[in-house]
Here is the input.
Amino acid sequence: LRTAHLSLARRLIRRHLARAALSPTLIAGLLGISVRHLHILFEETEMSFSETVTTLRLEQSRRLLREQPRQTIAEVAFACGFESLATFYRLFNASESMTPGDYRAQTA
Here is the structure.
C-alpha cells in the first residue's frame, strides 16, 4: 500500500507540477491521507516531497528550454510552477552551474 501511495503521489505531483500552489496538503488531500503520512512515505525515499517537486520542476524546465525556444525564460519558469523568477534562477543555477539562458544557448 505504501508503494502504491508513493507511486500515485508522484503521478499527482507530475500532473499538478505547473501549479505554484502545489503542496503536501493538496497531494495528501487527493490521496485521502494525512500530510504527515505523505511525508512519511517520502522519508523512506532518497528525496523529500519538496525535493521531489523541485527536481521534477527543474527537469521540466530543462526540457522546455530545449524544446520551446520561443518561450521566454519567465514563461518557462511559471509553466513549471516556480512562484518567482528569482527562485527559478537560483535553483536552476545551483543545479546546472549556469543560468537558464546559458543552458538554452548551449543546447540549441
